[in-house]
Amino acid sequence: MAPAMQRVTLGVIPVQDATLPTGLARVMSRLVADDVRRKTRAVAVAARRPDAEPHLSPFLLVCDQVRGSDVDADGLRRLIREMVPTSGDARFSALVGELACFYYYSATILDFVGPGVHSRRRRVVLPGVL
Q1: pLDDT for res 95
Q2: How many CB atoms within 10 Å of residue 33?
Q3: Measured distance CA(92)–CA(103) in Å, rounded
C-alpha cells in the first residue's frame, strides 16, 4: 500500500467517534484539519532562520492561528491572504507559497466534502428549479 494511502487509512480510525454519527464530511474534515496542522508545523520549522526576519515573525503568527483554531475552507482562504510573501528571500517565499498552495488545495477539498455540499451542488446544477 502506498504510504499516503496507508497514513489516511490509519488516520480514519481515531477520527471516528463511537458516540456520534460519523459521515464522510466529518471524517474528511478532521483528516484535512490534521494534515493542515501537520504541514503548517513542518513549514514553520523549515522557515525558522535568523536571516528570514523581519518577515518570519508575522508568518509564524499566521501559522499559530492554524494550531489554535478550527480548520475550515473560509479560514484557510483568509490565512492565504494574510501570508502573501513580501520577502526578497527566495527560500522563504517558496516555503510560504508552498503552504499557501496547500491551504488552497485543502480548502477545495473541504468545499467539496463539507457539510451541506449536496444542497449547494443542487442549487448550482439546477438553478431556479428548487
Answers
A1: 86
A2: 19
A3: 17
pLDDT at 130 over 70: no
User: What is d(CA 74, CA 72) in angstroms, rounded to the nearest whole number?
Assistant: 6
Contacts of 8 (CB under 8 A, 6+ apart): 31
Q: Mean per-residue pLDDT for 65-84?
A: 84
Q: Residue 105's pLDDT is what?
A: 93
Q: Which three cell numbers stand for residue 85?
A: 510573501
95, 105, 114, 101: which is closest to 45 by C-alpha? Answer: 95
Specify the 3-state DSSP secondary structure of 33: helix
Euclidean distance between CA atoms 1 and 109, whole angstroms: 23
What pLDDT sits at residue 113? 80
Q: Answer for the pair 95, 47: CB distance below 8 angstroms, yes or no.
A: yes
Higher-pLDDT residue of 81, 84: 81
Separation of alpha carbons 6 and 97, rounded Å: 27
Please compute the mean of the pLDDT values over residues 80-105 and round it to a whole number. Answer: 82
Q: How far is CA 64 from CA 40, 68, 70, 87, in A?
A: 9, 6, 12, 20
